[in-house]
Design goal:
Layout (H helix, E strand, L loop, with lengths): L1 H31 L2 H11 L4 E4 L2 E4 L5 H29 L2 H17 L3 H7 E8 L6 E4 L13 E3 L3 H9 L3 E3 L6 H6 L5 H4 L8 E8 L6 E9 L8 H11 L3 H18 L10
Antiparallel strand pairs: 1-2, 3-4, 3-8, 4-5, 6-7, 7-8
Helix pairs in contact: 1-3, 3-10, 4-5, 4-10
C-alpha cells in the first residue's frame, strides 16, 4: 500500500508541470480576450499579439481563442478528476466515513439527549475540507450520512453557512433559520437556481470546526442539518451544541485524521486563483 501511494504521488507530481503550464497560458489568454482586461490595461500593453507563461508562447488571435478555451476546460476537468481521486484515497485511508458514522451514532445523540435512531431519521452530516485546487473553496470529502450521496462537490467560502463559519473561523449553530429566496441571494451569496433548491433551505444546522490539536487553525468542518425546526435546540442552544462539540473526544479524533488528510493533500496541491 505504501509503495502504491508513493508511486501515485510520483505520477501526480510528474504530470503537474505540463498541466500547470497549459493552465497558466490558458488563463493569460482568456484574460487577454476579456473586454475588462482590454479596457484596464490596454494602453499599457499596446498592440500585444502574444503571451508567454513558463516558457510557453501563445499567438493571440480569433483563430487560437477557441482552441485555448477548449484546452482550459480540458485542463480544469483533468485536475478536478485527479484531486477527487486523491481526496477519495485519503478519506478511505483515514476512515472518515466510519468516523462520521460514529459521530452521528454517539457524539451527536449524546449531546442532544436523543437516540441514535432519532438522529439518523431527522439529521444528516458530512465533512468539508479546504480545497487544494480552487482558491477560497471548500470540498465535500465524504457523502452525507445517512444518505450516501453528495461527496466530490466544491463550495465557495463566500456563500452559505459553511462559508460563513469558515471565514469567521468559528463553529455555528442555528435552530430555526427562515430565509426567503431573495435573502439567500442577497445575504448568502447564492444564485437564483441555488436559492430555489429546497435542500439548501433546511431550518436547523450545525457547523463544527475541526481544529488542530496544537493550534486554533481549522482544517475542516462537520456540517449537520435537519428539516425539523429547532432540532438542535433554539439558536442559542444550537450555538452551544456546535461550540461544545468541538472539544468532544470523537470530534478531536476526526480533527486529527482530517489534519493528516490535508497534510498529505497539500503535498500535491496546485491552487488556481479562479473563483467558483
Amino acid at each position: 500500500m505504501a509503495d502504491e501511494l508513493n508511486q501515485s504521488g510520483i505520477n501526480w507530481i510528474l504530470n503537474w508541470p505540463a498541466a500547470i503550464l497549459l493552465l497558466g497560458a490558458a488563463v493569460l489568454a482568456l484574460l487577454y480576450f476579456s473586454d475588462r482586461f482590454q479596457r484596464v490595461i490596454g494602453r499599457l500593453m499596446g498592440n500585444m499579439k502574444s503571451l508567454s507563461f513558463g516558457g510557453v508562447g501563445l499567438a493571440l488571435n480569433s483563430e487560437t481563442a477557441p482552441e485555448i478555451s477548449a484546452n482550459f476546460d480540458e485542463v480544469i476537468t483533468s485536475l478536478k478528476k485527479r484531486a477527487t481521486a486523491h481526496y477519495k484515497q485519503q478519506a478511505k485511508i483515514h476512515d472518515l466515513d466510519y468516523l462520521l458514522q460514529q459521530f452521528m451514532g454517539d457524539a451527536l445523540p449524546h449531546k442532544l439527549g436523543r437516540t441514535k435512531d432519532d438522529v439518523h431519521l431527522n439529521a444528516r452530516a458530512t465533512i468539508h475540507v479546504p480545497d487544494i485546487l480552487f482558491k477560497e473553496a471548500l470540498y465535500q470529502i465524504v457523502d452525507y450520512f445517512p444518505g450516501r450521496y453528495g461527496s466530490g462537490r466544491w463550495f465557495s467560502i463566500r456563500m452559505g453557512i459553511i462559508g460563513r463559519a469558515w471565514r469567521l473561523r468559528t463553529s455555528i449553530g442555528v435552530g430555526n433559520a427562515q430565509h426567503t429566496g431573495e435573502e439567500l441571494i442577497t445575504l448568502w451569496g447564492m444564485t437564483d437556481e441555488e436559492a430555489s433548491d429546497t435542500s439548501r433551505q433546511k431550518p436547523s444546522y450545525l457547523c463544527i470546526l475541526l481544529r488542530s490539536r496544537n493550534s486554533n487553525i481549522p482544517y475542516g468542518l462537520i456540517f449537520v442539518d435537519s428539516e425539523s425546526q429547532n432540532y438542535f435546540g433554539d439558536s442559542e442552544e444550537a450555538q452551544k451544541v456546535a461550540t461544545t462539540l468541538e472539544s468532544h473526544a470523537l470530534v478531536k479524533n476526526i480533527s486529527e485524521e482530517v489534519f493528516q488528510v490535508m497534510r498529505a493533500m497539500k503535498e500535491r496541491a496546485i491552487e488556481i486563483a479562479v473563483p467558483l
